[in-house]
From TrEMBL:
The keyword Zinc-finger does not apply. Residues 103-287 form the Xylose isomerase-like TIM barrel domain. The lineage of its organism: Bacteria, Pseudomonadati, Bacteroidota, Cytophagia, Cytophagales. InterPro entries: L-rhamnose_isomerase (IPR050337), Xyl_isomerase-like_sf (IPR036237), Xyl_isomerase-like_TIM-brl (IPR013022). This is TIM barrel protein. It comes from the Bacteria.
Length: 424
């Protein structure tokens, strides 16, 4: 749907504007002693995985309003991620949720992904829904269930997910548990956590040597009295007990309002136990809104800690993924906006004057420390992000090109108006 001629025409039309904007920013950054080419290389290398379940219209328990043209198969989901990568230059990976997206032919799927310049990020298990032909129900839990037979079914599913990931070249398993309780007395907290740990130990033992297990946490939903893994501390506890291949995964929406997520990031990196990041935005909880749409300064502060931790700890390389559900927007437009917001926050954090910040911290100069951070945050780095995107073969303004080429209209014509993406 997007030809090289389309990209060239759009970029050529904006060439003079982009040059003026970039020259102005580059001069300012150079005056501050920042090497612009170094920034561009880091932005070029920063790639964000797209989850296979985010390509269709999301929803709430009250309704869903699909626009049509949604991907009907894993092949079409890969095509859509390839389209996003073509526009943004920053989405070179897809993250699959099993059993929503089980490849019928792993080699054929890998070849298709390779044709779009894509690889496979972490694979995700699903024990929060009952699956067709399953012998048991996860209504009262999966890895924590009081019935050993249910736990064994959930363990076997996670092992199967690993097998699918191996066939696709993935290197990590993400485990998110809906396990918990809705009423006091429903669970013995200690025993539920103990059973979960024992189940995870069996899955961990099945991991290939070069794989990681990413343990996600969430304070509530779908259970509203307790969750077995409710916070980063419990995730870190489990990961520490399992071994060095087990790490914590932070989802921005999986925190209570006003939680200091940047501090959590800093502590986990200090412990060298941060494994991955799921990007979205929220006002109240797991709202799954567009990344950076509500709290761009918090996103910047999180990246500030990520960069500082990368420079000063031995934390392993991180997996980056967008995890949002799009109910009102075209999901592809939403993902493009999220990628842009993430790259902007990353670029802003890269230009923080860390030597001056460290000096201000040593001197307890609170006002100066705030000024250093806010100077970076208030810098319009969009020309820098655009320059990196152009270097990666993308377009100056992805959403505008998406609309000008009427991509959603073309997808509807190709796939129909009543298509609903698998897994939602």
């Amino acid at each position: 749907m997007i030809t090289k001629e389309n990209i060239w025409e759009h970029n050529f039309a904006h060439e003079e504007l982009h040059k003026r904007q970039l020259d102005h920013l580059a001069t300012s950054l150079t005056d501050q002693g920042i090497v612009v080419e170094d920034l561009l290389k880091k932005l070029d290398d920063f790639q964000i995985a797209i989850p296979s379940w985010a390509l269709g219209t999301g929803g709430t328990r009250f309704g869903r309003f699909p626009e049509g043209g949604e991907p009907r198969s894993l092949d079409e989901k890969i095509e859509d991620v390839g389209l996003l990568h073509q526009l943004s230059g920053s989405c070179n990976a897809i993250s699959l949720h099993i059993p929503w997206d089980i490849p019928d032919d792993a080699q054929a799927i890998k070849s298709l992904a390779n044709s779009f310049g894509l690889k496979f990020d972490a694979v995700n298990s699903n024990t929060f829904q009952d699956q067709p032909n399953a012998s048991f129900s996860y209504k009262f839990g999966s890895l924590c269930h009081v019935d050993k037979a249910v736990r064994e079914e959930a363990i076997a599913h996670n092992k199967s997910v690993i097998d699918h990931g191996v066939s696709l070249g993935s290197k990590a398993l993400t485990v998110w548990l809906a396990d918990g309780s809705n009423f006091p007395g429903q669970h013995n907290f200690r025993e539920a956590l103990k059973r979960t740990q024992e189940s995870l130990e069996e899955i961990y033992a099945y991991l290939p040597g070069d794989w990681h297990m990413l343990i996600e946490y969430k304070p509530y939903e779908p259970n509203f009295y307790s969750m077995v893994i409710p916070d980063w501390g419990t995730s870190h506890l489990l990961a520490s007990q399992l071994g060095e291949k087990a790490l914590s995964l932070v989802d921005l929406g999986h925190h209570l309002p006003n939680t200091n997520i940047e501090q959590i990031v800093a502590i986990l990196m200090m412990r060298e136990k941060l494994g991955g990041f799921h990007f979205n935005d929220s006002k109240y909880g797991d709202d799954d809104l567009t990344t950076g749409s509500l709290k761009p300064y918090q996103l910047f502060l999180i990246f500030n800690e990520l960069i500082d931790g990368t420079e000063h700890t031995g934390n392993p390389p991180l997996s980056w993924m967008i995890d949002a559900s799009h109910n009102l927007k075209d999901p592809l437009e939403d993902l493009l906006q999220a990628v842009e917001a993430i790259k902007i926050a990353y670029a802003q954090a890269l230009i923080v004057n860390r030597l001056n910040l460290e000096e201000a911290q040593r001197k307890n100069d609170v006002a100066r420390a705030q000024q250093i951070l806010q100077d970076a945050f208030r810098t319009d780095v969009r020309p820098l992000v655009a320059a990196s995107r152009l270097r990666q073969g993308g377009v100056f303004d992805p959403v505008t090109v998406y609309r000008q080429l009427e991509i959603r209209k073309n997808l509807i014509q190709k796939r129909g108006t009543k298509t609903i993406s698998t897994g939602l």
